[in-house]
Amino acid sequence: xxxxxxxxxxxxxxxxxxxxxxxxxxxxxxxxxxxxxxxxxxxxxxxxxxxxxxxxxxxxxxxxxxxxxxxxxxxxxxxxxxxxxxxxxxxxxxxxxxxxxxxxxxxxxxxxxxxxxxxxxxxxxxxxxxxxxxxxxxxxxxxxxxxxxxxxxxxxxxxxxxxxxxxxxxxxxxxxxxxxxxxxxxxxxxxxxxxxxxxxxxxxxxxxxxxxxxxxxxxxxxxxxxxxxxxxxxxxxxxxxxxxxxxxxxxxxxxxxxxxxxxxxxxxxxxxxxxxxxxxxxxxxxxxxxxxxxxxxxxxxxxxxxxxxxxxxxxxxxxxxxxxxxxxxxxxxxxxxxxxxxxxxxxxxxxxxxxxxxxxxxxxxxxxxxxx
Length: 372
Known about the structure:
Distance between the termini: 103 Å
Radius of gyration: 28 Å
Helix content: 25-40%
Largest sheet: 12 strands, antiparallel
Strand order of the largest sheet: 7-8-9-10-6-5-4-11-12-13-15-14
Shape: globular
Strand content: 25-35%
Number of strands: 15
Mean pLDDT: 77
């Protein structure tokens, strides 16, 4: 009967006539050492994979790592999903909802030679405290395009450019020595457009020479809690979001006196999907768990009043309150709701959204240095 050649598995083993025997040059002690070594390596590999899995699950959404620390508002959308949604088809021509931001996105696509429907998968708009606010935000796009080809396309176009770190910022529209619309390629599948100051900040964050919003503890905590499959997500940062809460509570005549005892609320995140019904989640960070519980109690009281008010004034909207859930845990208040697509605009009018524009305030005018 033919002899099978030796195969090493946890030590050299000769397989002959159907029986496994230790190789003559190695005893049982050597085999045990090798077995333990392989077991240890396997255990270390499994532990590393588990840690990597945990890290991946707790990571922030794609693109959030590029938001500068002075951003006051950011929203990221799944472009194919949003463009195919009924909501987008209904409101895409309404400048109240999209304004010049949609036009700037299309201007970016034209300037780079990209197809916004097929080449771009994710679009992140962001606003910093400044004169344009939410009306004209900068954007970061990720997609299936070749970043090197887009860079070469821009370079060959003859646009003036300046370099921040290793990133070229191409100046498309300059007014009074200020670039109002610039373009940059950040890596193989990521590009950016917007005003020159914001693109400079994004390039510095990318290079690690400027802080990112995700480096701040409370903002990072909210970003890690956002669902990875959300069609849209965003974050708001202000001096105090209690102003927005008071505005909402006033509309349902709810008692908001208890909010005056709270420390400022600086951050909130949100996410939504455009299915039927539309699922919306909003989270706020409070200074303490006690503050979070108090905010939740006030909102629950407002919910009860809101049900009565809506039932009397707008009975057709009464079903939007059935899926409302308010929770508080570990310093975070979570509000989730299901809203029929047909009622989205009515809910926006009921709650009011103008306060959001007020949250993204203009930057303070620079003061002149005193004369020596």
